[in-house]
Every structure is written in C-alpha cells, then in structure tokens.
Amino acid sequence: MGGQSWDIIVVGGGSSGLPAAIFAAERGARILLLDVAAQLGGTLWVASGQMSAAGTRLQKDKGISDTPDAHFDDVMRISRGTANPGLVRLAVDHAAETFDWLMDQGLAPMPDHPVAGFGHEPYREKRYYWGAEGGLSVKDVLVPIVERLAASGAITVKLEHEVVGLEVDADGAVMGVTAKDAAGTEHRFSAPHVVLTSGGYAGAPELFEELSGYPQYNAAPYPHARGAGLRLGQSVGGWLRGFDKVYCNFGTLFDTDSFPARMLARPETFPERREPWEIYVNANGQRFIREDIRSVDAREMALLDQPGRRYWIVFDQAILDAAPPLIIDWTREDMLAAFDRDGPAFVRADTLDGLAEAAGIDADGLGRAIGGFNYGVTTGHDFFGRVHAPLPIGKGPFYAIRMQGCSISSAVGLAVDDDLRVIRQDGTPIPGLYAAGELLGSSQTMGKAAAGGMMVTPAMTFGRLLGQRLLPVGA
What we know:
- Helix content is about 30%, strand content about 15%.
- By secondary structure, the chain is an alpha/beta fold.
- The chain has a six-stranded mixed sheet. Strands 1-9-8-7 form a four-stranded mixed sheet, covered by helices on one side. It has a four-stranded antiparallel sheet with strand order 12-13-15-14.
- Helix 4 packs across helix 14 (about 455-470).
- The longest helix has 20 residues, at about 85-105.
- The protein is elongated, with a radius of gyration of 24 Å.
C-alpha cells in the first residue's frame, strides 16, 4: 500500500494504547504509535484513575484473600448481569498481573488501599485502588516508559496525527492506516495488525447525544475523545453495541443552562457520609427515591427514569440552619451567597408555589410530595421507607438546588470478540483489526452500572494482552 511498514500500528496513546505499545515493543515488534493529541496520555489526563484487581501482591501483603472468580461475581452482581461476561472474565483474570506490573514500574497507591469502594457500589472485598493524583498517577508511570522506548528506537511515536482511514486488501483484511499530520498532509502506514485504542465519544457533544440518547451536559471529558475509533471500525464492517446500557451518575451541580458545562460544586448525596435532611423531587414535583438508601446504583437507576434525568434537592430554612453542610467544602455562608446570585441551579422563595414556579417544578406535585414527607416525619412511617428525617419541610423561605444526571464515559462501543478482535455483526472477526479501552464502551466491562475500577484496569489489561499476543512479522 506504499508508505512505511510496521508490525503493529497502535491508534491512540492512552490507557490501552500505551501498554499495547510497551509490551509489543519489549517483544521486539516494530511499533508505530499514533495520537491526534500533542501529548501522550489520553483520558488519563482527566480520569479518576480508579483501578480494581483481585489477587494482587498488595492484597496479599495486607492479608486480604481475594480471587478473580470473586471479582467476576462482584462485577456481574453490581452490573445486575448486564456486563459482557467474556470481556469481564478476560479483564479480571489478568488484572492482578497488570496492577503488580504497574507497582513494579513505580505506581504508588494511596496508603490505606485497597478499599472496598468509593463513589460507586462497593465490592464485597477490598480490591479497589488509585493513586494520589488519580489518572495522572497512572499516566506518570506509562508515558515515561514509552518515551524511553521511543528514545531507543523501539517505538516510533507520531503525535498530532489523526487517523482518518483504514486500508484493507481485496479480502477485507486491515493492512494499515491513513493519517493526517498537523499540517493536513496525508501519510500511509502499513502493518498486519492495527490496534484501535482511541477512546470513546464523551468529548463530542453531538455524537454523545446521538449515541447515548441524552445531551452531554458535562464539559469534563477528554476533548480528543470524539469517537474516531468508532467511525474507523464501522468503515470496514464493524458495529456498535451497548445502546441498551446507557446510564448516568446521580446528579452533578451545574449553575448554568449553557451546556456542556463545568461542575460548580459537589453536594453530598451519599447517605453513608452525610444522612439526608432534604428531599429529592423530579420536574413533576414527585419524590422518586428513598433519599437515605445506601445503594448508589439504586439512586442512579432511579434517576434514569426521571424527566430529563434531572432533580431538585428541596429544603426549608429550618433544615438549612440545623443540618450539616450539604455541599462539600462550602460553609453556610457560601450556600447563602449562591442563592443570592442569579443562577438557575439555586432557587429560593417564600412560598412553595413560588419555589416551584422559579425552579420549573410542578407546584401541585411538590405540595403533595412535601405533605407526604411531613407525614412520615410526624408518624415515623415514610411512604418510601426513609428512616432519617429529623425535621419536616414546613416554613419558608424554601430552597431548591437543581441536579443534573450526566456521564463522562461512553457506554456505546465497537464490538469485539473475547480475543479483542473487531467483529462484524455476524460475529466474524475483521482480519488485522483489534480494539481496546473505552472504545469498546464502558457498558462491556461495567454493564448498565458503575463498577469501580472496571474501565482503567481493563483498558490497561487489554492493551497489555494485545501487546503480548500479536506476533511480529516473521515470528
């Protein structure tokens, strides 16, 4: 096909592409690593970097007995059976090797780790890890290794190269790529193996809404996560899956109506850390979840069914005065200042009808919800089974804080088999084409849920396995 020839071309220098390049280069393969960005690291620049692995040396050193089988069962439990069992099995069976290798290369987990969970549905065992700098802790291990291998000539890195096409032979086998450099000049690179690790689509708002079915409210995703790998895979016969497994978090606080936007602050909606005094209502004014339920998954699944995936945290002056601070790192004065500003997320009114009108909530529904809640406070028999309810919502001024369900990950992804080969809709693999990382869709390793550490660790593990398994020419 002309141009330069390599053993393996890796498209994307993030949490999957970096290990793929490293492990393939260490086996003597000629590696070309292409990335559209001006620096390596991909979503590790913005990711939380949460990892999970069972049977690690760190667990054993701390007397924790754990197995990949237990990890598998936990992921399938948390995902309610919606994760891809073949890919979950591949991920958890090899996760400990990946994590141990990362620690050998200098990764330093937080001192109290592993833990059972944080921010997501907890595991039954302590197998959850991250570094002090989140995704940057992982990036700072992987990128220097690639840079050393590049300096020695084992890897060729070409940044600011956008892969715009896949080259195929007469039989449909992928034989290389076409890429544009920063000046717009096209280059053709050939290889018998092309590994797509270019991330998801959460950084492309229009594509996110098309594939996920609701707007991209959050401006936090990696800006180069724009779905390029999805288009490349589809161009040669691949297909997308995971549309039925789209989910959102339990609300982010954006004080704007111009989206995507940056989070303003973080209300504490985890009852294990702060018991709720307030109620949560949807646009119809209805309560939709027991506010003190301990399961974050239950809260997230309940929000999926609410209008616009949006709710309001509602309370009155007595609760504001008596309750522990609602917003993390904010004082009561900070909260009052937010209500004094002219922002759409913070609404205050002297009457419930006024609050409903200002917030855009159905007034009749809100009145019924508060009446029902107050009945539970008085009798101890909350209609939702809520236990913690110290005060009724009774006397103005009344307050509402708007929360928006959103996601910074990509649930829909390119279909692969359990060997990470990109497949057609009939299940047959496309020769020469492989994929790993968020390009596969978070739904494949987490399901319609958030299973802790089941994005970054599988991404690294799948990249490592491809680097170890793909044979150089003539091998």
